Each structure stands twice: as structure tokens, then as C-alpha cells.
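Q: Got a minute? One more chain.
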Amino acid sequence: MRIAIHQPQFMPWLGYFDKMDKVDVFVLLDNVQFKKNEFQNRNKIKTANNWIWFTVPVNFSFGDTISGIRIDNRHDWQKKHLHAIQTNYGKAPFFKEHQPALEELYKNEYTLLSPLNVYTINLIKTLFSIETKIVMASSIPNLSQDPTERLLDICRYFNADTYLAGAGGKGYMECERFKNAGIKLLFQHFVHPEYKQLYGAFEPFMSAIDFIFNAGNNFDLVRGLNKKLEECY
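A: Always. Here it is, folded:
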């Protein structure tokens, strides 16, 4: 059993789904502190002038967990998002094919950020035909507050023998603690596919909707470039 754990992001990038595609269970870590100016309530789309953030406005206090973050619906952010996406992707080859699903997303009313993020994650996951099971960390009892021990607790809950971390984890994750727990620690090695975008030179690390509108939902293009994993020694 291989598992990965990640905070629920808003319309995540391709590397997020590559990690999800490589595991049996993908746990959304919704019971940790919300961090401003990261990817929990915003992401990137490409425009004629480089790229821009598209952000979900939220109300929060320091220390609030992601699961409790409320959306600030005083702002008509759905209309603003739709306008930005239609303006910048309306002429993309696969926009019309996926426009109805996008519009359905923005027709819904959301009070909390986490359900919105889960919706966007499941929408893209379905388009990419990824069958990995998604579980909310807040549904798992008795998790440690220590960051590493929390990951180990989640692995133990699912009887996982392998944990897949992002490439950035190589700089801080404690290999010995995973080894002592009998869990193999692997690191993602993501190679970003290059595809034809609107507006000139290729810009990587956009929301996955950039790939979907420009290149379609053929996730095999990503899979073909991303077969390598690195083991923690």
C-alpha cells in the first residue's frame, strides 16, 4: 500500500496529480494550519502578459485550520474567475469541450474553502481518469500534532508500507523515523511536460486547467515523463 499526503489546494498544478496518480490513497491534510499566500486558496493561469493569480477570498485568523476557513462571499469571486478564465482560455483548443464542467463548478455556492478545493481536485482527477482513493485527514482519529509523527500515524491507519513525498521533502524529512516505523520513504521526481500554450513561450507550473484547455485531458503525456522515484537513504 502506497500513500501520499498533501494539503487540499485550489485547482492544483500537474505535479499534484502526478503524485496522486502514483499512490493507492491520497490523504488531504485539511486539519493543519491555513497559510496565507500559498496555494490553498489560489493558483496561476497564463495570460497574454505572463501569468496571474486567481484567488478565492477568505476570512481567517492566525492558527485556523484549513477545514475551518470560510470564503468571503462579499466578493463576486466566481464571476471574476469565470471572466478571467474565459478571457485567457476562450481560444484554447479544448476550452469548449471542458467549459460546461467549469461553469458547473462556479454555479455552486460555497461557504468553506475546503469543500471547494475538494471539488476542484475531484473534477480534475476525474478528467485525468485517476482512480486513487481520496480521504480527508480530519476523518482519521487520534493523529499526532508532531508533523512527522502525524504522517506516520496516517500511514499506520491505512497499513501503508510506502510513503511518497514531494521532491522538496528531501531537504527536511527524517528518513530514519520512517525506516524505524517500517515504512519506505520515496520522493517524487517530477518532469513538467511542455505543450503548446496560447500567448507565446511556454510557462510551466500553472494550474492543471492550463494543460486541460491547451492540451486536453490525456494524462498519459504526464505519466510518460514521470516514472522515476527516488528512495530516501
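A: The radius of gyration is 18 Å.
Q: Perfect, thanks.
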